[in-house]
Amino acid sequence: MNLILFGPPAAGKGTQAKRLVDGRGMVQLSTGDMLRAAIASKSELGQKVEGILQRGELVSDEIVVALIEERLPETEAAAGAIFDGFPRTVAQAQALDAMLAGRGKQIDLVIRLKVDDAELMKRIAGRFAESGRPDDNPESFKVRLDAYNSQTAPLLPYYRDQGKLVEVDGMASVEEVAAQIDKALGAAVS
């Protein structure tokens, strides 16, 4: 099963993905984690990515697609992949579809965590106060949220037209969101 968790930054995708990794043996492909690892490596790519994220901009398709493609064999040896933070554009979705098709795979389900932008801003301010993570800076987050709404939200019709999109209430408790996701996964398998 290949699954996309879809929603803006701080919507809870990472929390739900970790639950699915632990409970179902899937591999989480979090572009955020991959990009933070690149930054931590202090490589040339990491320094470039750091500047892009601090400005609140999206990392290029070329960089992100290469990071994802590198990890696909790992997902095939497991129970499937959870794409978290990818794809972000229709071009990335098409690249992902082509990569998977070349391996005889596809995206089976897209789960959108529907959330309220104002509540997300409150969440991120609290998270930044606790973690101090540069990409959780409220000013940078606002830019990321605007980028999501203008560039990534257009993916909804792309997956809705394929009959793969399921929406869940991302403002519910972690447990309620998990139950809604489990129900969607059960329906997709049957």
From TrEMBL:
<keyword id="KW-0547">Nucleotide-binding</keyword>
<feature type="binding site">
    <location>
        <position position="36"/>
    </location>
    <ligand>
        <name>AMP</name>
    </ligand>
</feature>
<feature type="binding site">
    <location>
        <begin position="10"/>
        <end position="15"/>
    </location>
    <ligand>
        <name>ATP</name>
    </ligand>
</feature>
<feature type="binding site">
    <location>
        <position position="133"/>
    </location>
    <ligand>
        <name>AMP</name>
    </ligand>
</feature>
<keyword id="KW-0963">Cytoplasm</keyword>
<keyword id="KW-0418">Kinase</keyword>
<feature type="binding site">
    <location>
        <position position="144"/>
    </location>
    <ligand>
        <name>AMP</name>
    </ligand>
</feature>
<feature type="binding site">
    <location>
        <begin position="57"/>
        <end position="59"/>
    </location>
    <ligand>
        <name>AMP</name>
    </ligand>
</feature>
<keyword id="KW-0545">Nucleotide biosynthesis</keyword>
<dbReference type="InterPro" id="IPR000850">
    <property type="entry name" value="Adenylat/UMP-CMP_kin"/>
</dbReference>
<dbReference type="GO" id="GO:0004017">
    <property type="term" value="F:AMP kinase activity"/>
</dbReference>
<feature type="binding site">
    <location>
        <position position="127"/>
    </location>
    <ligand>
        <name>ATP</name>
    </ligand>
</feature>
<protein>
    <recommendedName>
        <fullName>Adenylate kinase</fullName>
        <ecNumber>2.7.4.3</ecNumber>
    </recommendedName>
</protein>
<dbReference type="InterPro" id="IPR027417">
    <property type="entry name" value="P-loop_NTPase"/>
</dbReference>
<dbReference type="Pfam" id="PF00406">
    <property type="entry name" value="ADK"/>
</dbReference>
<dbReference type="InterPro" id="IPR033690">
    <property type="entry name" value="Adenylat_kinase_CS"/>
</dbReference>
<feature type="region of interest" description="NMP">
    <location>
        <begin position="30"/>
        <end position="59"/>
    </location>
</feature>
<keyword id="KW-0808">Transferase</keyword>
<feature type="binding site">
    <location>
        <position position="92"/>
    </location>
    <ligand>
        <name>AMP</name>
    </ligand>
</feature>
<comment type="function">
    <text>Catalyzes the reversible transfer of the terminal phosphate group between ATP and AMP. Plays an important role in cellular energy homeostasis and in adenine nucleotide metabolism.</text>
</comment>
<comment type="subunit">
    <text>Monomer.</text>
</comment>
<feature type="binding site">
    <location>
        <position position="172"/>
    </location>
    <ligand>
        <name>ATP</name>
    </ligand>
</feature>
<feature type="binding site">
    <location>
        <position position="31"/>
    </location>
    <ligand>
        <name>AMP</name>
    </ligand>
</feature>
<feature type="binding site">
    <location>
        <begin position="85"/>
        <end position="88"/>
    </location>
    <ligand>
        <name>AMP</name>
    </ligand>
</feature>
<comment type="similarity">
    <text>Belongs to the adenylate kinase family.</text>
</comment>
<keyword id="KW-0067">ATP-binding</keyword>
<comment type="pathway">
    <text>Purine metabolism; AMP biosynthesis via salvage pathway; AMP from ADP: step 1/1.</text>
</comment>
